[in-house]
Glycosyltransferase family 92 protein (Populus trichocarpa), 1062 residues
Amino acid sequence: MGKERSEKEKVGGGEHNKRNMFVSCVVMNSCAAELKLVLTALLVLCSIATLFQILPSRFAISASDLRFCISRITTTTTTTTTTTISPLNSTTTTTTTIAPLNSTTTTIPLTPSPPSAQKDQVADNGVIKRVFNPYGSAAYNFITMGAYRGGHNTFAIIGLASKPLLLYSTPTYQCEWVPESSSASNSTFSTVSYRILPDWGYGRVYTVVVVNCTFSEAVNGENSGGKLFLEASTSGGGDKNLNITDRFEVLNESPGDLNMSLFSSKPKYDYLYCGSPLYGGLSPQRVREWIAYHVRLFGERSHFVIHDAGGVHEEVLEVLKPWMELGYVTLQDVKEQERFDGYYHNQFMVVNDCLHRYKFMAKWMFFFDVDEYIYLPPKNTIKSVLDSLSGYTQFTFEQMPMSSKLCLSADYGRYYRKWGIEKLVYRDVKRGIRRDRKYAIQPRNVFATGVHMSQNFAGKTTYKTEGKIKYFHYHGTIAQRREPCRNLLNVTEINFENVPYVLDTTMRDLAWSVKKFELKTIGPKLQNTRQ
Amino acid sequence: MGKERSEKEKVGGGEHNKRNMFVSCVVMNSCAAELKLVLTALLVLCSIATLFQILPSRFAISASDLRFCISRITTTTTTTTTTTISPLNSTTTTTTTIAPLNSTTTTIPLTPSPPSAQKDQVADNGVIKRVFNPYGSAAYNFITMGAYRGGHNTFAIIGLASKPLLLYSTPTYQCEWVPESSSASNSTFSTVSYRILPDWGYGRVYTVVVVNCTFSEAVNGENSGGKLFLEASTSGGGDKNLNITDRFEVLNESPGDLNMSLFSSKPKYDYLYCGSPLYGGLSPQRVREWIAYHVRLFGERSHFVIHDAGGVHEEVLEVLKPWMELGYVTLQDVKEQERFDGYYHNQFMVVNDCLHRYKFMAKWMFFFDVDEYIYLPPKNTIKSVLDSLSGYTQFTFEQMPMSSKLCLSADYGRYYRKWGIEKLVYRDVKRGIRRDRKYAIQPRNVFATGVHMSQNFAGKTTYKTEGKIKYFHYHGTIAQRREPCRNLLNVTEINFENVPYVLDTTMRDLAWSVKKFELKTIGPKLQNTRQ
């Protein structure tokens, strides 16, 4: 990668340890499934061994090349596999050892023979022909998160791809549709297939890819079922001699399952929230306030998709549960993506998955964070605002940054019982700073999205939303488990740590009605939630 | 949450992420424990083998994961291989197709069946557990170029590794020595193993690694033969769940082959030239001039190692041949490294291979290019200069930049018969420009090297070589097949294209004696060489 990037720890952004994630996968499997996997893995390896007896030895598979075969097996078992492959007729031994990062090691020998590593050769004219022997694998070609139909003949596949592959090579992607019944018709290939890289050049080992595949005519038009395959070609990225195409199933439509009317019907929801992955030690009380506030704001025809990258611990799940039971919240557990080193919990992949997964289920989609509160000035409703913006595919709105520690002296002795939006009442009014904006889209016109805006959509965008909609941002409060109030003030203006603040009780004034709404809707069950 | 972090570009290279939490389990285990485990596992494997006929086979190795197996097959054959893998009894098909980038395709089917991709699952509490399915491989873990002994108990392995692996993870490297005769003694592991990244943060898909392995005592001390293996561990780089160790042979010492006296004897050569990889349409005449000039300069106890990355075409080979036949030149064909996308024809790998390959064969090693001419001012000889610098492991020397197109009017009508150093006589004297320097080292004290200097050596370095040694640089002449003279001048100073030049006939004055030396040494066979 031409440019190395160093990441700064986000201030107050939580003490999440990214490295802890790899523990999760192993724990999930039941013992029975594990045993079966181990046994079947051995079967496969033996089958391969048998196969090798038949193949001429110079076509044999290198042990190091089997790494990935084994890696898949190891992922789903708690034992460690060491593979020793002895040569049939060469003097070279090559071994791949795969150790899950948190367990002890056992060793299982294998049989297939690797080829001898190639050796340097001296030509007749004295020239030394040097050879370069490659081993193992350092990154997957493609990792799928989701694949979604976008209409009668078009699909989107969301995943990660190797970043240097995309930076230095031109991998290509194509879709193939295979009908369920082989008698029906032959498989067809997409005529237009392009990739979108929505993450602004971020990414580390992996970067986010949205593949858009369009076929020349409707696929599965008879609703008889079929499968979508993605073909991902490296175009010589890791080895200029080879164009390697991995072909794999990404979507399976069972006969009768497809409802084409979905794409033209009125969506189920008016407003859908797509959250970035949550991680770290989140405050249950802050999350409780946030969800109650926004369910009240967006109303009955709204839905919230929360993505858990490790932040939704037991206490946070408790405050979400009542809203999940009422159908307001869907929780997506995306912890598994932590295996793959991308940008910031792979947030660009997660929001794009959300976009395409719920594309036809909502008229408007909002993208903002759980320390941010949408605010509509008096005389506006969410409907009136969005109706006035319905000519735009996308609009963005401005930020009101709030202090995460300045509170009112008047609340002294009672602030620990008050809500965050109630007690944090000082607004940062420093000028000349470009502040992030947040945005909403009409998803049917959008092909890929980002964190602060979409850059891939049909239609118009507007930034002129002042006086209609904005958001209050309580940065540094969400991953804070102790009381946020640090300084109690009784002034309307103050310069604190070189930043000018003014008293702003806009949100404080709404807290009472949000509390009332929560009590009315889900009862008192969350009254004893802790910070 | 979800706020994008501001990322700063790092200046320079070699800095890495600090993921030191991953520790290779494999390294920790004693050999005895391992052996026990191997045997136990073997027993288990054999017992289970008999049951395999009965077991269902829906868990099998993913075809895409076999990609690398197949890629190796393709690499070692000249035919093109497309591999189609059909499922045994599952509904999912996964296929890997490998097409060499420049030939037509034939098809060879393989048999192992892929597993179904994992599917998302909805838990009892309504949480959707998302899965991420990885496929294929985008980069090798390690690619070897050479492995060399550096003494009775130490080795250097030179190769390429995946760049994001090194940038975002902390892959580890260890060596294992396995004696030829299994009765002799057990294999031993290196006690100190460290990696040097000599390429200043350059690199693309791959970056250069020099692994230095030192054992606690002499290996192969009895000269009974043995093999060196490198164990390269990913430490979770491409998949945080897995620490994958590829183990492969890098060096093979046959019984009786080792000559330990090599490391303490007087080297065969006084001066050895290590060239960067040559590529492009080089001018045979320029190369002819360069080699004649430097053989004369460095004398009988010198040797030149030329690396061909595609630049040594038939006509260039012709002008090198006479010197190869006299033993002055070794030509290394390194074209195969072009398969692996690194920095500038992987030049940092090539010079490090040269360093370690010839470490004990020369007292001094020089690193400069074939458009550069070493110059010693009058009253200096190469011996007197290097003797005066013998207290230094490394010295660098300054550049005299020469115009690649300004010639003398006096040469009008005859310049196409004159040599480059003879007719290109205007020196760039622009001030305030930092110009590259070139360098020489005493290789026995050097662990890794670069293009403009080494940063990994024992001992001292000096830059104070003015008046002793410098080099004339004819930039832009070497890959130029037509006549370089474009402007004929009869002045001693000129401003040309905003650059001041002065007449400098230092090299011109030497041309006659170089021509005479060439004729005397190899005869007239190169007299008709073309530009």
The longest helix of chain A spans residues 31-54. Chain A has two domains: 142-260, 266-527. Confidence is low (pLDDT under 50) at residues 1-44, 46-92, 102-115 of chain A.
